[in-house]
Design brief:
Layout lengths: L1 H15 L3 H38 L13 H14 L4 H6 L4 H24 L3 H7 L5 H23 L4 H13 L2
Helix pairs in contact: 1-2, 2-3, 2-5, 3-5, 5-7, 5-8, 7-8
Length: 179
């Protein structure tokens, strides 16, 4: 998250210097790196979950080899740090309505939705469903993602109206949080 935040700061600086092409390239690299990290963590979580379920139903298996990689804990740590970066000093310099701030809000929302998706897949029994509404359950993280997407959506509408592609992307993301 530190590298991604620094890269977004670089993109904002380039935009302030009117180097929009370079800024766009930096934002694309941030989006690609974030997508890669989130997909790796999500895949790791679902692979582990699938192996555990298969182990429970296969009576001829004696042991389950676990890599001790806790994707949910890693995602929670990543999200916490990435979310804390929203209050970094550079964000106050460029302001809440700057395009990079709005993109940063959406990226944090993306990370939160992956975490919420993993948690919701792992909450299968009735005890887990009670935990879903707690401050660590998937409903909590969907709600946090909704808040970040909403801030991004309002900013894009205020700055560019409903026709901007990022407005539509934020609206889609908001709808996904409501499912």
């Amino acid at each position: 998250p530190n590298t991604l935040a620094s890269m977004l700061d670089l993109a904002a600086s380039c935009m302030m210097a009117a180097d929009y092409t370079f800024a766009q390239g930096v934002v694309k690299r941030v989006a690609d790196r974030l997508a890669l990290y989130l997909s790796e963590q999500e895949a790791s979580y679902f692979d582990t979950l699938r192996k555990r379920v298969a182990f429970e139903y296969e009576t001829n298996r004696v042991y389950l080899l676990d890599t001790n990689t806790d994707a949910v804990s890693m995602l929670k740590a990543f999200v916490t740090v990435f979310q804390n970066h929203l209050s970094r000093e550079f964000m106050t310099v460029i302001g809440a309505s700057h395009e990079i701030t709005l993109i940063n809000q959406a990226f944090v929302g993306d990370a939160l939705t992956v975490l919420a998706n993993c948690l919701s897949a792992g909450e299968g029994d009735s005890d887990d469903r009670k935990a879903a509404t707690s401050s660590g359950g998937h409903v909590y993280y969907w709600s946090l993602a909704y808040v970040h997407y909403q801030q991004s959506f309002k900013g894009w509408v205020a700055a560019h109206g409903l026709t901007h592609p990022n407005t539509a992307a934020s609206a889609y993301s908001l709808a996904r949080c409501l499912r």
